[in-house]
Amino acid sequence: MTEQNILAFLPVLPSGELVGSAAELLGAAALIGTPVGVLVTAPGKAQRAAESAGHYGATAVFVVEDDTVSSTLTAPAADALVTAGRAVGAEAVLIPDDVDGRDIAARLSVRTQSAIATDVVGVHRDDEGVVAHHSVYGSMFTTESAPTHGSLIITLREGSVENRAPGVDPKIRRLDLGELPSQSAAIIEFSPSAEASTRPDLRGADTVVAGGRGLGSVEGFALAEELADALGAGLGASRAAVDAGYAPNSLQVGQTGVTVSPELYIALGISGAVQHQAGMQTAKTVIAINKDPEAPIFDIADLGIVGDVFEVVPQLIETLKAKSS
Amino acid sequence: MKIAVLVKEVPDSYGERRLSLTTGLADRSASDPVLDEITSRAVEAAVSYAESSEDVEVALVTMGPESAEAMLRKTLAMGADSAHHVIDPELAGSDMTLSAEVLAAVLQRIECDLIIAGDVSSDGSGGVIPTMIAERMGIAHATSLDTLEITESTVTGQRATYGGTVTVQAQLPAVVSLTERHPGPRFPGFKGIMAAKKKPLETYALADLGIDPAADVPRSIMLAVSESPPRSAGEKIVDEGDAGTKLADYLIEKKLV
Ligand SMILES: Cc1cc2nc3c(=O)[nH]c(=O)nc-3n(C[C@H](O)[C@H](O)[C@H](O)COP(=O)(O)OP(=O)(O)OC[C@H]3O[C@@H](n4cnc5c(N)ncnc54)[C@H](O)[C@@H]3O)c2cc1C
After folding, report:
1. For residues A290 and A267, what is the distance between their CA atoms, to the nearest angstrom?
2. Does a structural domain hold residue A184?
3. What percent of chain A clears pLDDT 90, i.e. is strictly above it?
4. CB within 8 Å: B222 and A143
5. Whether A207 contacts chain B with CB within 8 A
């Protein structure tokens, strides 16, 4: 039997820390073969990330440390994956389904003439190889796809695979980049996000509190934040709330935002448009608070409260505080 | 400068969207096709740049069934100059590899300096086609831009990355894609609608582009499709001054806190 090597592209923060999705990417790789990590960082930044990759199950880690990583868009990562893929004969490559990941996957798929599966929510192996699972039209349909032949490039939706691989002591292999294509876009400035939030990440959180246009203002939206913190929950928002500037883009839940499936989803002042439902209707329990008894969010809520969020939520927080002390 | 905008017809997300459980393809009878909202933002960006600059021509490019022609006429009314439509029965259910090959082939033909697309389509949620096209054409990509500045020789914009935001810049020719943070489309006026009827709309079959859909290259194929059970409504209570307390009790009882 040949070794079934699965590459996982593991993004690294400028600080040298692995991005949170690493454990999931390696856990997914372990479901279908032997996880091999690939890291691409600025010079001197890979060591700690490579060790953590082993902790999350990478049996080997390919490491590229190169100046171009902070100045050239996509090309260094795509090049590293082409080389690493050839070196181990990768049967599949797992890449996060996000802004950077989609570009890397796209370039890699065309360059290596490999089939591509995007926004994948699960993987398994059958007699003929790797199979990718997809969730379509806001989780209303589930499909499975596979390549006719060759390896498969996969972009994995964060927060969809629960499997985690046992930690190992990884073999670290350094790679040099080849000559990068001259027509790549340049990265001319990086601005770090304002202080990293201490809340659990929206995509992996067990509980999500989401606020909508009904919160009325930035100050009003703080009520959603307060409830999220009281419950130790991740924070989400409707598109209307993002458009109104109450919350950053990255918190948008829905068809064109993040898809979440937490144990508990609490919607505050969200009408529940079909495009919002598309991103949260697989939550185990949905609770909605809305003034409008006809709001469509009530059609999918396990418990719906017809009321004013500014009355119901403070009382909820007070009661929970009182009961926990 | 010539700008090509990739536009796409998709099932209306306000309607019922269905996959056929026998073929796994979109069930076109389930809901009306509409211009994907994100691609309408791309058209708006191109048309408003054309208005503010000299000698800018905007061409719409799509791949889709017959119904896409009406969508193209409507979109031309927003102020684009011409439209290019790849239509071929062999394209039903095409994978992304084939779609990118087809779109890159038309774009090569129409010789444009800048290609603008939406970041992720609302039906396929792939988000890889623009960059796949860039790789095929050997040009730069700058995708998922929240802001866009076009000059005669460059495009610049901001996008999300791990731990922050980056400003990226590409020399033309290049492919860019835009996020929802860009303004929505204008309403075409009566003049625009009348003018659109006379604008050139060219159609292409795969053979015209020299593409063989049966070529022996790796493709992604669908193996299975199933429908998830719909969610139903639970209990609904009206707040009588104690709903916050009731909700706290509910959460505690269900062990959700
Ligand atoms: C292509 C496309 C993609 C889209 N993608 C997304 C997406 O990813 N995510 C998304 O969310 N939307 C998306 N939308 C937009 C969607 O259609 C809705 O416009 C949006 O979800 C509405 O947000 P909302 O519920 O916050 O606002 P509204 O619909 O305005 O609802 C506000 C609600 O707050 C209630 N309310 C007001 N005051 C109070 C109060 N004091 N107490 C309690 N309730 C109160 C009102 O009764 C109302 O129901 C998309 C639309 C399109 C066309």
Report:
1. 8
2. no
3. 94
4. yes
5. yes
